[in-house]
Amino acid sequence: MTTWLCVSPETTILTVNGLVFLNLVFYFLMERKHSNSTEGAQQATYKGVTYEKIPEGSNTDASSDPVLTRDVKLKALKEICPSMMCVVISLMSEFLVMEAVITTYAFPNSPFPPRDHYQYYINLFLLGELIGRSYLAVVSFVKEELVPKLMVRKLWALTIIEVCILIFCLLATWYRFLPDITTLLLLSFLGGLIIGIIYANVLQVFTESYEFPLREFVLGFVAFAVGIGVFAASLLGLVVEPLFRQHCLTTTDLAEYCFTKTDPNGASNVTSSCHK
């Protein structure tokens, strides 16, 4: 909003803060679907059951939740380790691309200034991630029977694609052989789409593969794997981005095309062109 629509930073922040109420809207929609699925279900009745007095001190808890032992937890962690590695490697690869590699690659023939390149990169990435994360939910609303058929259980294949995107972007940014921004825009969207698909499917696979309470235990490690992947990309980015930016400055005379993010020191001047 600030860079494209010339909206002041204060108004932009207030607008974005108001979007948190969308969480309540989507929660209402999900809860309504759950309520509709259980509506009309036959309720259990106990009119024909003969009353019997329970002796004092007897255990009335017919079923207790199973206890997860250390061996059970370790076995589950061993089983989900390959999937967790796929999540970590995929997140690390894509976030390294988005936050440290293509941030140093802008094109003089683009119809927008260098600082707007990153806006297009990140927005297409987020759009792809939104579609990837939500496609199973959308399919379930249309026809729930299609969900198992559209699930991706071979997460390693998607991880290989993410690593290939990382390698290509590293080479493209270092040698700067792309003619225009089109390829990077497509890769940004594709990378976000794959990340979303991986996240949605790993949750679905774990949900179907494990029963309570082990299911809740393994699902908690998905968020842990995501955090590890993003954190690893952040650490690598501290080295990769300055290195690639310095390399760009030594190989081209157009220094402004070596960094696509808005300079924090000049953030107050982002909308200055709107008032000239």
Automatic annotation (TrEMBL):
Keywords: Membrane, Transmembrane, Transmembrane helix, Transport. It holds the Pfam family CLN3. GO terms for cellular component: endomembrane system; membrane; vacuole. One of its GO terms (biological process) is regulation of intracellular pH. The keyword Membrane applies. Its main location: membrane. It is a multi-pass membrane protein. The chain crosses the membrane at residues 12-30, 84-108, 120-143, 155-175, 181-206, 218-240. It is found in: Endomembrane system. The keyword Transmembrane helix applies. Belongs to the battenin family. This is Protein BTN1. It comes from Acropora cervicornis. The lineage of its organism: Eukaryota, Metazoa, Cnidaria, Anthozoa, Hexacorallia.
